[in-house]
Amino acid sequence: MSQLKLQISNLEVKYGPFTALKEINMDVGHGELVVLLGANGAGKSTIFRAISGLNKPSNGDIRFLDKKVSGISPDKLVKLGIIQCPEGRSLFPEMSVYENLQMGGYVHRKNKAEIKKSTEHVYELFPILAEKKDNAAGSLSGGQQQMLAIGRALMAKPKLLLLDEPSLGLAPLIVKQMFEIIQQINQEGTTILLAEQNASAALKIADRGYVIENGRIVVKGTSSELFNNEEIRKAYIGA
Amino acid sequence: MDLFFQQLLNGLSNGSVYSLVALGLTMVFGILHVPNFAQGAFYMIGAYVTLTVMTLFGIPYWIAMFISMLAIAFLAVLSERIIFHPLRKAEALHQMMGAIGILLFLVAFAQVIWGPNYQQMSSPYGNAIGLFGITVTQQRLIVIVATVIIMLILHLFLTRTMIGAAIVAMAQNREGAYLVGINANMVAMLTFAISGILAAAAATLASPINLVFPGMGDLVIMKAFVIIIIGGMGSIPGAIIAGYILGIVESFGATYISGDYKDIIAFVLLVIILSVKPTGLFPGRVN
Question: Most buried among A4, A9, A137, B112, by the most CB within 10 A?
Fold first, then answer.
């Protein structure tokens, strides 16, 4: 196994009296693309929020590059290189596409040349963003907003990129493009943890996967193991 | 016709002061969701700091204003750290109570230190001058011009610097701001500092026209709340425009209806505008 980047052990998150996550054990290796499969409300976003420091775990441990990171504030995690592209995108709607990207590079703001290079790289990945760079983020279509959200996350130069349901609400053709680009980002060397409901598309590009149900990991394995697992085919692939 | 322009000018200068106070209030509310009733007390203390620095040390008006801005920025940040930061996850009502607590404390503090009496602040601009056939005091012109300059500086800060943009980002999407690595504490303190600076500037500009006393912020903060409700909670252009609208309407109301009703006008305006447009003129993002 490759060197471990993210290691989650025995993670538990509670919302008031409700236990949203229990005994979550996961790891992501250096350079891997790992997918987290699960239905709506299974707990995918909660795991992501805990990794990014938006929710405090009530128990368990999150380690990143062999350093304990649970309990650290979100802005410090971004500085360490854990960048999340959240479900719902969380863009700055009244700022332009260009300004959103610049905010994405907030932690590297002192290095102007680097920011410029990253901006151009994002424009290469998503040419439509270059075309629309002066438009307000709120005026973009859903697919374009998702591209901008991923672009903004890339501006922070992630060591670990958390993508929460990037295909949600997008037209099938755009979804295909989106997965190609995610694969490309991974091949360029970025470690990715991807949360998805679209299991067949996600497993095609992923190395390994976890399946979460009701706040617990129920199955884990390589992509082909998961793809050939009868129950998973029934529940998530539908074929 | 002279009276009309005279009152327009008075309205603009009063409106400038309202806008400055309301700007600070709307920023704190829009970004941190704190209804800061203490903003009126910051305004009052700001006037006393300027007055004290001027009379006790003989420091010139503009430098005194600058010192007051720094002092009130510090006071505002201190309030954020001691009161609002620990309450940031509590219910809105607790923050409101915290704000009112600061307000009461500061008003009592002013009474102890400076006494309950009305005091006058003299500015170097007490003369009246003729302008296009109407007579105005220089101070009123100074208020209008200085306000425009302060607003321009604030605008440049928010749009041209990364730190300013971080504040705007936090207002537009709080979670998005966390996820690009913006430090929430930094933004909270900075926003309070700006609101303090604006309050001190407004008070220093308005005091030579009005008077300095411990209760001077009470009506101003009430009106500032009316302004940000009219303008749309959390909206910056809304606060500026509604501030000027209120200043001008009050001024004309006092002249053409009756001076006795001057302070009621704000609330009548509030009722009228909210019955036509319940979200305010520029609906903010706060929900």
Answer: A137
